[in-house]
């Protein structure tokens, strides 16, 4: 029977296909005493061999779609399966303690994980703990006769349905098969939603109950423009979805005509419309959409895509590729922003009550200077190949910026002394995403070369509303006068010191926010590459004088997010 659900529209586009449920099965079990150890050992070997067969398929697929290097993590998993010490220890546990294979597996794997995690001075061995955890899950699923879902094994067109998707799940999606995804939880600015937009996969998040509303294999229609999901749609609904998809494609074709145009308002003012990227692979989308630079390169994905800390040379190659491709257009590279919802399996972080308020981004970089210096050296070496700007994430105090700058200058000095060619005109800026930095922007502006406002975090910290939590998404209010006043203060403070202010949070590509930002005088707008042409088309229709008048009202007369949304709609209605 046809059912409808409404969620948060997270990535544009419309698709209809069968549901693929990416839902983790229940892997709970009881440890029981057994009489016949040989029978349990047989079960164990069968599960080991099934796991190996499955990993072989996943590995081959990963090598094809993601590359040989990414596939190597699965080699590590297969090596654990083949390790006689691991299997032998489980066999002995079964024999000695007379317990079932599940219990023995868990106890041996817990022991290995604890041993590896305790090797705090050996990052390589610490990484193995994550591998053992993964492999154990797979063996356990086979012992229990459960199927672990695996997006890498999808070989037909599907709508992926999940409770939530991590950024690394999203990175692995093959857009030839995954036509859209829908999740129970999440927000528009969570990283999986941001990545969906750069991959151009329609997405709806925060439906609350998609995983319990749809059966595997049922047809689903997803409208990423409106946030509507239809389960088991009628023929007429499928036809309507197709018509909507055609209209959207036509609209995109019109925007495409602006690909080589500059971003100019109706009164002839030019603004930079740039793109956000996560990896050099995203450059295709940047070029296809005619962005005027990269306003945010989220380098943490380089770390997340790798099975271990990327070397200086690996990083140098990635940065050089981006800088050379974009040259002479500017590229703002943000140093590693790990923590919050972005994890590295090989860099175990302490469990924290509030990871978004915890050990992350520049806080890790200043603490783990070995990692930070490697990244800065790679960036400095790459600076000779293009127009590099470096930006530090999650800066809360001027002291943090000065400490980061000092490390940068030391590494620069070392390289220059060693005869390495580095650019002398690298601008150093900061993300403004913590309210403390926004409030103190007038002081910060004396120290930095530029600001880039990270509204994704700035809104969540100002409103105290988790950006990924749909229960509080009503408080996630980009147009709230409190947010607009902070943004205005940041822009004015930059201009007073002759610096520039940009925005790389998702609000920079939001059609309601852009008119307000034009009115506030923001210089640079950086967004998912897929939003660039829409924003360019919008700017063409607006005059900065009108928008300044409107922004004045939004800052001083309106008292709510909704009032400001209505105000922008009124001012831009005829456009
Ligand atoms: C651009 C931002 O950074 P991220 O989304 O990576 O946290 C932001 O916070 O707005
Ligand atoms: Mg941020």
TrEMBL record:
What Enzyme Commission number(s) appear in the record? Answer: 2.7.3.9
Q: Which residues form the Phosphotransferase system enzyme I N-terminal domain?
A: 6-128
Q: Which residue range or ranges hold the PEP-utilising enzyme mobile domain? A: 155-227
Keyword Metal-binding in the entry? The reply is yes
Q: Name the InterPro entries on file.
A: PEP-util_enz_mobile_dom, PEP-utilizing_PTS_enzyme, PEP_util_AS, PEP_util_C, PEP_util_CS, Phosphohistidine_dom_sf, PTS_EI, PTS_EI-like
* PROSITE patterns with a match to the protein in the record: PEP_ENZYMES_2 (PS00742), PEP_ENZYMES_PHOS_SITE (PS00370)
Q: Which EC class is this protein assigned?
A: transferase
A GO molecular function assigned to this protein is: phosphoenolpyruvate-protein phosphotransferase activity
NCBIfam families per the record?
PTS_I_fam
Function (record text): General (non sugar-specific) component of the phosphoenolpyruvate-dependent sugar phosphotransferase system (sugar PTS). This major carbohydrate active-transport system catalyzes the phosphorylation of incoming sugar substrates concomitantly with their translocation across the cell membrane. Enzyme I transfers the phosphoryl group from phosphoenolpyruvate (PEP) to the phosphoryl carrier protein (HPr).
Protein name per Swiss-Prot or TrEMBL: Phosphoenolpyruvate-protein phosphotransferase
Q: Which organism is it from?
A: Lacticaseibacillus mingshuiensis
* Gene designation: ptsP
């Amino acid at each position: 029977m046809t059912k409808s659900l409404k969620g948060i529209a997270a990535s544009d586009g419309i698709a209809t296909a069968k549901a693929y449920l990416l839902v983790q099965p229940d892997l709970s079990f009881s440890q029981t005493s057994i009489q016949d150890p040989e029978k349990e050992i047989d079960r164990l070997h069968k599960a080991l061999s099934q796991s190996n067969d499955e990993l072989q398929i996943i590995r081959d697929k990963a090598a094809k779609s993601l590359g040989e290097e990414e596939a190597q993590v699965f080699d590590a998993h297969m090596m654990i399966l083949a390790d006689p010490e691991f299997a032998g220890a489980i066999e002995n546990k079964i024999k000695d303690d007379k317990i079932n294979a599940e219990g023995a597996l868990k106890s041996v794997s817990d022991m290995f994980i604890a041993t590896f995690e305790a090797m705090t001075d050996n990052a390589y061995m610490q990484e193995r703990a994550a591998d053992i955890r993964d492999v154990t899950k797979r063996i356990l699923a086979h012992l229990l006769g459960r199927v672990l879902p695996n997006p890498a094994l999808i070989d037909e067109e599907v709508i992926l349905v999940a409770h939530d998707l991590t950024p690394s799940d999203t990175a692995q999606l093959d857009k030839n098969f995954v036509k859209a995804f829908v999740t129970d939880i999440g927000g528009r600015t969570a990283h999986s939603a941001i990545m969906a937009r750069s991959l151009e996969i329609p997405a709806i998040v925060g439906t609350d109950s998609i995983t319990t509303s749809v059966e595997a294999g049922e047809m689903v229609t997803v409208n990423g423009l409106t946030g509507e999901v239809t389960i088991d749609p009628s023929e007429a609904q499928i036809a309507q979805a197709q018509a909507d998809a055609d209209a959207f494609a036509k609209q995109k074709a019109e925007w495409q005509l602006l690909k080589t145009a500059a971003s100019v308002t109706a009164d002839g003012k030019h603004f930079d419309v740039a793109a956000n990227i996560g990896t050099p692979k995203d450059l295709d989308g940047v070029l296809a959409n005619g962005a005027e630079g990269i306003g945010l390169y989220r380098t943490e994905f380089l770390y997340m895509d790798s099975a271990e800390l990327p070397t200086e040379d690996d990083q140098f190659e990635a940065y050089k590729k981006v800088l050379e491709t974009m040259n002479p257009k500017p590229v703002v590279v943000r140093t590693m922003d790990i923590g919050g919802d972005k994890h590295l399996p090989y860099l175990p972080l302490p469990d924290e009550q509030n990871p978004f308020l915890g050990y992350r981004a520049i806080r890790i970089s200043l603490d783990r200077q070995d990692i930070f210096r490697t990244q800065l050296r790679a960036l400095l070496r790459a600076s000779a190949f293009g127009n590099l700007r470096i930006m530090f994430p999650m800066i809360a105090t001027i002291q943090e910026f000065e400490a980061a700058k000092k490390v940068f200058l030391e590494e620069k000095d070392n390289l220059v002394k060693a005869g390495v060619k580095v650019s002398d005109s690298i601008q150093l800026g900061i993300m403004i995403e913590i309210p403390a930095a926004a409030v103190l922007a007038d002081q910060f502006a004396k120290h930095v070369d530029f600001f880039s406002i990270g509204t994704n975090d700035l809104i969540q910290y100002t409103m105290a509303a988790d950006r990924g939590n749909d229960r509080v998404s009503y408080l996630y209010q980009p147009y709230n006068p409190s947010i607009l006043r902070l943004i205005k203060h940041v822009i004015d403070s930059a201009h007073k010191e002759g610096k520039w202010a940009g925005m790389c949070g998702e609000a920079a590509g939001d059609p309601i926010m852009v008119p307000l930002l034009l009115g506030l005088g923001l210089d640079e707008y950086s967004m998912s590459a897929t939003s660039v042409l829409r924003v360019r088309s919008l700017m063409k229709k607006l005059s900065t004088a009108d928008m300044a008048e409107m922004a004045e009202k939004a800052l001083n007369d309106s008292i709510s997010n909704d009032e400001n949304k209505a105000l922008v709609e009124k001012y831009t209605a005829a456009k």
